[in-house]
């Protein structure tokens, strides 16, 4: 069974640009969560999607958005990039909503974003 | 904000020794999980312990949970160089479904 796939793995953008990251969950998983990881802030929850609906949202500005498609694939978008958006963006999938009932999250390898 | 605080932030040991990492959290939880992350890679789930459990084992891993102290510990026995990684505890609050991560412990196992 294929794992969680994130694309692209690495990308470099400049301030003011926008970026779209993609995540394909494990087949059969309906929940996709996104996390931002930086050395200073650690792992911060961005949002969670289940059945194409955003179910949870973290404390990030409106520049951060996402969506989920009918095949459970998810994208997140960051507009008007700032230097502080440089981070590893991790996507995770699970069978049910979050990890509350099903336990573990399955993570992808991440997309490393560098903003210059 | 982080739900969990981990201690120590960094730990360096020799192969064959045991490694113990601690995690404290703030709210009532549904379960607590431990994840491992190799440098720059994704996180891998290690073990889950529910709020009504006190101890759990998986191979060389032993996890304890003390809900009265809001703390957990992860013990890795007979460590190997391949255990070198960052280890994170993560909690799910009883009222929610999102997983909130601690700050992590960087473990280095020297051959």
Describe this structure in words.
- The complex is a heterodimer of chains A (116) and B (111).
- In chain A, 0% of the residues lie in helices and 52% in strands.
- Chain A has no helices and 11 strands.
- The chains are: A mainly beta (116), B mainly beta (111).
- Chains A and B meet through strand 5, strand 9 and strand 10 of A and strand 4, strand 5, strand 9 and strand 10 of B.
Based on the structure, what is the oligomeric state of the protein chains?
A: heterodimer
Note the main sheet of chain B: 6 strands, mixed
**Most residues in contact, chain pair and counts:** A-B, 27 and 24 residues
The whole-angstrom Rg of chain B is: 13 Å
Tell me the span between the first and last alpha carbons of chain B.
Answer: 36 Å
User: What is the 3D shape of chain A?
Assistant: globular
Structural class of chain A: mainly beta
Query: What is the arithmetic mean of pLDDT of chain B?
Result: 91
Helix share bin of chain A: under 10%
Q: Count of DSSP E strands of chain B? A: 11
Secondary-structure element series of chain B: EEEEEEEEEEE
N-to-C terminal Cα separation of chain A, in Å? 37 Å
Strand fraction of chain B equals over 45%
Low-confidence stretches of chain A: none
Q: Outline the biggest β-sheet of chain A.
A: 7 strands, mixed
The percentage of residues in β strands of chain A lies in over 45%
Mean pLDDT of chain A: 92
Count the helices of chain A. How many? 0
Shape estimate of chain B:
globular
Highlighted features:
heterodimer, A: 116 residues, mainly beta, 4-stranded antiparallel sheet, globular, B: 111 residues, 6-stranded mixed sheet, 5-stranded antiparallel sheet, 11 strands
List the helices and strands and how they pair.
The complex is a heterodimer of chains A (116) and B (111).
Chain A: E1 5-7, E2 10-13, E3 19-24, E4 31-38, E5 42-50, E6 53-57, E7 64-68, E8 74-78, E9 87-94, E10 106-107, E11 111-115
Parallel strand pairs in A: 2-11
Antiparallel strand pairs in A: 1-3, 3-8, 4-5, 4-9, 5-6, 7-8, 9-10, 9-11
Chain B: E1 5-7, E2 10-14, E3 19-24, E4 29-37, E5 43-50, E6 55-58, E7 61-66, E8 71-76, E9 85-93, E10 99-101, E11 105-110
Parallel strand pairs in B: 2-11
Antiparallel strand pairs in B: 1-3, 3-8, 4-5, 4-9, 6-7, 7-8, 9-10, 9-11
């Amino acid at each position: 069974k294929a794992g969680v796939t994130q694309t692209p793995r690495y990308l470099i953008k400049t301030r003011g640009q926008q970026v779209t990251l993609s995540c394909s969950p494990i087949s059969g998983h309906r929940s996709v969560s996104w996390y931002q990881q930086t050395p200073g802030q650690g792992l911060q929850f961005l949002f969670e999607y289940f059945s194409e609906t955003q179910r949870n949202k973290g404390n990030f500005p409106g520049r951060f958005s996402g969506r989920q498609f009918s095949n459970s694939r998810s994208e997140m978008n960051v507009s008007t990039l700032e230097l502080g958006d440089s981070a590893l963006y991790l996507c995770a999938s699970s069978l049910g909503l979050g990890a509350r009932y099903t336990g573990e999250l399955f993570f992808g390898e991440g997309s490393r974003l560098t903003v210059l | 904000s982080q739900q969990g605080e981990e201690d120590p932030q960094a730990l360096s040991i020799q192969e064959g020794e045991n490694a113990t990492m601690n995690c404290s959290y703030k709210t009532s939880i549904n379960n607590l999980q431990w994840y491992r992350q190799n440098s720059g890679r994704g996180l891998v789930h290690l073990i889950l312990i529910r709020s009504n459990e006190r101890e759990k084992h998986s191979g060389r891993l032993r996890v304890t949970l003390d809900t009265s102290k809001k703390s957990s510990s992860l013990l890795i026995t007979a460590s190997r160089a391949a255990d070198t990684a960052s280890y994170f505890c993560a909690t799910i609050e009883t009222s929610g479904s999102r997983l909130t991560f601690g700050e992590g412990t960087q473990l280095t196992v020297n051959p």
